[in-house]
Amino acid sequence: MESLITAAARALEAGDPLGALNRVALRNDAPSLALRGIAMAQLGDLAKAKTLLRSAARAFGPREAVARARCVVAEAEIALVSRDLNWPVKTLAAARATLDRHGDLANAAHAGHIEARRLLLVGRPDDAERTLAELGTSPLPPASQVVRELVVAGIAIRRLKTKDARAALDLAAKAARLAKIPALSAEVDSAKLILDTPAARLIARGSEHPLLLGEVERLATSTALVVDTFHHVVRRQGVVASLGTRPVLFALARLLAQAWPADVSREALISGAFQARHVDESHRARLRVEIGRLRTKLKPLAEISATRLGFVLAPRRTRDVLVLARPVEEKHAAVLAFLSDGEPWSSSALALALGTSARTVQRALEELARSNKVQSFGHGRARRWMTPPVPGFPTGLLLPGPLLNT
């Protein structure tokens, strides 16, 4: 019967979950439960997969620490795909240490990759890079090499290093071909699309056009004065004025930059920055105060001069003023950006990734749902949100080695 277990494990390694289930579907011993759990995860039934893996972990005896650790790693990957970012990371770290201690380097590396992917999702690329560095450079199975390179590419994209990202994705594509797993190849192809899809809009002199990620990278070294709506800063090369905590000042800076070299009327500034429907003298007084504060903030970068109609921006040491804007701008654009990966997210995971409160995210999701831009399924803590249509099978859920004692 052990030959069936070995055959099922090899089927999973080859990306054939149905073939694995055909061999162990009627068995309830610990290795079979674990393999069935991974197969169900690859087929997209994450709830059933989690149940089977937990049953397998309980069924393995006290001397089978490696097998239990592998179950923990598989469950952690399910949590990652389910965007359960609050899953206990210490449990994964302990499992990774157990695998490393017993010489299961492939699955120990896989555990590290899962940890790095989670760190990348919550906006901690430096920590993700340190986690990868801890894993060393020992040879990995092709499937595990794909996951590693995808993380490397993700870190490079976060840092606007498109050349490094393309190099990592090329390595991932080669490894995916060696692994001969279609789902992995599809995931690499999907990641490559990020580099060839408009990532921002450039607004200058009254016109706008889309920018690819590489063009955004080149803009970082531009001598132009850039109003960056992604990070809420005004910058010119290494000189940066942060307005992240001053939304009114940033709104004024953007309005002035979009109109440059023309001026902006006081009424337009008040309407755009203060969201006021009717302009009165109190608004004009507030505008004078806020313009004075903005002058102070932008002093190293630009001057703001009064005109007969309103105010005009005058950049220092450059003849260009650009606005770097999101591809799509609306009230809850950041929430939609995370949901665009096609995976189901919980509101708590979105709050963690966005660095805001769960209640704020919940209100945004409910507003987006009313306009049919997102949809949810499940109830209570099991509720998940996504952008329609419903995504297919998870593509990253691949364990690099069989869940067996060796």
Provide an overview of this structure.
The chain is α+β, with helices and mostly antiparallel strands and 406 residues long. It has three domains: 2-141, Serine Threonine Protein Phosphatase 5, Tetratricopeptide repeat (Alpha Horseshoe), CATH 1.25.40.10; 142-197, no CATH class; 201-325, Arc Repressor Mutant, subunit A, CATH 1.10.10. Helix content is 56%, strand content 11%. It contains 18 helices and eleven strands. It has helices spanning 2-13, 17-24, 30-43, 46-59, 65-81, 89-101, 105-121, 125-134, 142-158, 162-179, 182-195, 213-219, 247-259, 266-274, 281-298, 333-339, 347-354, 358-370, and strands spanning 200-204, 207-211, 225-228, 233-236, 239-242, 264-265, 302-306, 310-315, 321-325, 375-377, 384-386. It has a six-stranded mixed sheet. Helix 3 (30-43) runs parallel beside helix 5 (65-81). It is elongated. Mean pLDDT is 86; it is low at 389-406.
